[in-house]
Amino acid sequence: MTCSAADFFIRGEKNHQPFKAGIVIMVETNDTHWVDQTRNGNTEGFAMLVNQYQHIVYHMAFRMTGDPCASEDITQNTFLKAYKRIDSYDRKNRFFSWLYRIGINETLNYIKKNRPVYPLNPEIQSSEKNPEEMMLEKETGTLVRKALHSLPARHRILIIMKHFQNLRYDEMAPILGISEQKVKARLYRARQSLKTHLIREGFFTHE
Prior knowledge:
Elements: H1 31-39, H2 43-65, H3 68-84, H4 95-113, H5 131-149, H6 153-164, H7 169-176, H8 180-200
Helix pairs in contact: 1-2, 2-3, 2-4, 3-4, 4-7, 6-8, 7-8
């Protein structure tokens, strides 16, 4: 392979529109075919993989860091490393799990070196909502994001994977390198920690 993965990275700012940071739904594709094409020197193969997964990697990084610029860098570095290491990918495992693990490592490395900030509301508000509804939704979203970013990274990633990216337990387990049972146990602790922060901030009363 003679070209750089950066040649295929499609920035989220196409036509000056930023990545959306809402819930991401992942669609299965024939990843192994595109991996094989990439290994055989067909650069279009890697472009297809980037197109398929760049948004879910960016979304995870953004939810973890709260920084859109850093999230773009993390996403690009993730695909650069994936491209360079494509020959080490074991097709017995899902390509998505392998790629997402690289993305998590890149994100955690960034967090260790930088202090994340919880983001302003990135979603576009509906014009059909009245000002009071929009203000309440904004305040609620800000409070939840602030609580999320108060969690340790190991808890934050679990909440993001399950509740923001809708990953199943059997998808989370291989990414994190633990059993599904451990995923459930750790997610429970992460939820309890998040609930504690929300109670402290007055989001809801403790029952």
